[in-house]
Amino acid sequence: MSDHDRKYLVHPERPPKMRYCSKCVSPMSSAAPITFDDDGICSTCKVADQRDEVDWDARMKKFKRLCERYRSKDGMNYDCVIPVSGGKDSYFQVHIMKNVLGLNPLLVTYHGNNYLPTGMENLKNMREVFGCDHIFFTPSIEVLKTMNRLGMLMMGDMNWHAHCGINTYPIRVAVETNTPLMIWGEHGFMDIGGMHSYNDFVEFTYRNRHEHDLRGFEWYDFVEAAPKFGEKLEAKDMIGFMHPSDEDMDRVGVRGIHLNNYVRWDANEHGPMMVEMYGFKESEEEFERTYRRMSNLDDMHENGIHDYLKYIKFGYGRATDHTCKDIRAGLMTREQAIEEVRIRDHVKSKDLWRWLEYVGWTEEYFDEVCDRYRDPRVWWKGENGEWVKDNLWDKE
After folding, report:
1. Hey, which of 145, 176, 212, 296 would disulfide with 302, CB 3.0 to 4.6 Å?
2. 8 Å CB contact between 139 and 165
3. pTM for the complete prediction?
């Protein structure tokens, strides 16, 4: 038995002490796959450092050659499909494809009925400043409310419908319009977990979508589970969440490219650039759980109670995510980051009241469901029955 393990024999119910990256503030309990090296540096920091070694001019030339293969030969179809939320990253994707490379993209938006006013303004502005055709898809509001409740009960995530909608409906449109090339932004788990190297040129896959983005669930799991929780949901309600068949994907040759493999991806640079060039707007109101105002404006709960659920499950939230990125960008010290995390990650944000009214739940029931998903690697009960975890600022 190591000294580390022996130290906690006095607290047998307690998990091993939480490790945090020695460079940023990522915990080992990350929601994304993450590893630490012998120096205590996380895989996300190590992969982010690769961006300084990549020849981005050569990558762009490679990307141009790739795109030319998919440009419509007679101009009678779209050159690519871009899933967009109207956020700064969406603006940047369309900027590159339409105004830098001169392609004719079709924009596709999944609308989960939770847009912030500024987020909706940005989305509508995209139609004016880029001049692209744009498809919006909004499921039935009653179906969305049902999926909010079921997502919480099945996996502790009210926004599963959004993860699925964003990663499914645009693919359906690509198949229906016979447009093979899809342009996604950054690879999520590469960006927040260092899951892949920049030399892997990883592309969008059904497997990553199913296992990570969708937590291993599909639309039919919701239909099957609905009666067990007193809900009503039928297959006909879920058409927008049904992934195209392998036969249809092969017929069209759908291929999903992540732009961060070809263009240096840095939200701290893209955001101000999109403000200046296209009039993108940051949120006028401050958020409680993060200091950033330019991210996740397409869903009022993303920076709020949805992120609070990550804190409940994994012991950290968006303040941790954003400070990690800003440390890697050289915009913040680790000490400043720890202070942001200390004051924000635990906050139960006020948007909870809107969500409770939206789905017809009480706060007590919400808390009860939340507690079912606390990660035992993170949380344990204190002497008075309260939930306790390790923190970055704890003294040894």
Report:
1. 296
2. yes
3. 0.93
